[in-house]
Write a structure and sequence with these properties.
Layout: H1 6-17, H2 20-35, H3 43-56, H4 64-71, E1 79-80, E2 92-93, H5 97-108, H6 110-125, H7 129-154, H8 158-168, H9 173-185, H10 187-196, H11 206-221, H12 228-243, H13 253-260, H14 265-269, H15 275-296, H16 302-318, H17 326-357, H18 373-391, H19 399-425, H20 432-449, H21 452-477
Parallel strand pairs: 1-2
Length: 478
């Protein structure tokens, strides 16, 4: 992207025309956007050319992005791209980093951030990564202690807590700061764990489980005087880090059953590894929230349904949740919520299909009209959704509703397609486009329900119906 093509030369010429203050402001805004995880089209190219132009003119400019990114680097495995008011255990929203950094530099450690931040940026500009990291460690240590002190000072003062929330500027300010402090405290152990873990784990089996378990237990044993909450943090963030490398995140629960040497929920809950189960159940609850949002927006949810199904099945098969426990109650509530969400959509699907494909008399059809393409796409997504629910019906507690709706779809599409073909065969010039759009929609739905071969036969039948109608019209004119 940094080549010398015509487009880049035009960009350089334009950037040179900007006032120094405008260039500095644009650099700052682009770096803040990058810090928030927002990537504007061509943003990196523009930023690089801006910096090149600034160097040419010898113009100093604060490099907020480099120091801030280095400061938050230990948080990277725990960042999510969701809303700032999320409820995921041990996670920090990427959009919250910018206000937190501003609060640290404005209220928490203004002198240190200014001095060390400038030193870090200078070291980075000189490609001295080692020095930059040493300086940032010093800033991490100071920030960690001050954040801990700040949290402790507001713990029993609601007014102070509210004031802190306003100063930090994030919806869950106290939780965000607790996560930041905890990760900074455990950054060396977590960094070592990240280096030792494979980047991708297809399956969380004995060897990987033992490696994670041994390392976390060893790190906890090295600090016998550490508070219980610090050890709990070590396990929490260590497990989240391991889960981020798993193809099937629900498999994290295997470290809990392995450590307890039992699948009994009661025995697992007595170990420090119980937090792994809590993490997975929390992730499952977040997936249900995503499912609700995606259904409301009429988006495909097949992959999400499979992830929810696999997680529920994993919890139910690898842990004995038959008794009454907080985990079993949460899982029951989750399955009930999923069932209710899915049933509402499943049971409306046959009706949506019937409304689109209902045979109409010529008087009901507006000349030259077609089915609404958006309606057809939404209903096709619903039909795919019912098929996906059919594959996962047992764990999602929608067996009866899915079987009933799917049978209705099969019967209606089989019988309705014949009626639509007959209507197309006898259509006039005015209603033919509408009837053709109905047949095309039926072909799309049949491809989902009966497969590509069946849909292909229906498409061929549609062509024959049109050819027959044309031949009959020519014969009548003759």
């Amino acid at each position: 992207m940094t080549g010398g093509g015509p487009a880049v030369e035009k960009l350089r010429d334009y950037l040179r025309t900007l006032a120094p203050g405008a260039r500095a402001l644009l650099v700052a805004e682009l770096e803040r956007a990058s810090l928030r995880g927002e990537q504007a089209p061509g943003g990196e190219l523009i930023l690089e050319e801006l910096r090149r132009t600034i160097r040419e003119y010898g113009q100093p400019v604060p490099r907020i992005g480099d120091a801030a990114r280095l400061f938050f680097l230990p948080l990277e495995p725990f960042l999510i791209d969701g809303p700032a008011d999320h409820k995921r255990l041990g996670r920090l929203a990427r959009v919250s980093l910018d206000p937190i950094w501003e609060w640290i530099g404005r209220d928490l450690l203004p002198a240190e951030v200014k001095t060390l931040g400038e030193d870090v940026n200078r070291a980075l500009s000189e490609n001295d990564r080692t020095k930059a990291e040493q300086l940032m460690r010093a800033l991490h240590d100071r920030a960690h202690q001050r954040i801990k002190d700040t949290i402790a000072s507001v713990n029993h003062d609601d007014r102070a807590r509210r004031r802190l929330a306003v100063q930090v500027g994030t919806p869950r300010a106290l939780e965000d700061l607790e996560i930041l402090a905890a990760v900074l405290a455990q950054r060396d152990v977590l960094s070592d764990l990240a280096r030792r873990l494979p980047n991708h784990l297809r399956s969380f089996e004995r060897e990987q489980i033992e490696s994670v378990k041994t390392m976390l237990e060893g790190a906890a044993a090295q600090k016998p005087s550490a508070a219980a909450v610090a050890k709990a943090d070590l396990f929490l963030y260590g497990f989240i880090l391991a889960m981020s490398r798993l193809s099937a995140p629900w498999q994290l629960i295997r470290i809990a059953t392995y450590a307890a040497e039992s699948d009994a929920a009661g025995r697992i809950a007595e170990t420090p590894f119980a937090i792994a189960v809590t993490i997975v159940i929390g992730e499952l609850e977040c997936m249900v929230g995503d499912l609700r949002a995606e259904l409301k927006l009429h988006r495909p949810v097949t992959g999400l349904l499979k992830a929810i199904h696999d997680t529920v099945r994993g919890l139910r098969t690898e842990i004995d949740l038959s008794g009454d426990s907080p985990w079993s109650r949460r899982l029951t509530a989750i399955r009930t919520e999923v069932s209710n969400l899915l049933k509402a959509e499943i049971e409306t699907t046959p009706g949506r299909v019937r409304r689109l494909l209902r045979p109409r008399s010529a008087k009901e059809v507006v000349a030259g009209s077609l089915l609404d393409a958006t309606d057809v796409r939404e209903v096709e997504t619903l039909v795919e959704f019912v098929g996906a629910c059919r594959n996962h019906a047992n764990e999602l507690a929608v067996n009866e509703a899915t079987m009933r709706s799917y049978s209705e779809l099969q019967l209606y599409l089989e019988s309705g397609a014949k009626v639509l073909l007959d209507g197309l065969r006898h259509a006039g010039d005015a209603d033919r486009p509408f009837r053709q759009s109905q047949v095309d929609a039926a072909i799309r739905f049949c491809r989902v329900v009966f497969g590509a071969d069946y849909a292909g036969l229906l498409a061929k039948a549609s062509e024959i119906a049109v050819q027959t109608a044309n031949a009959e019209r020519k014969s009548a004119r003759a």
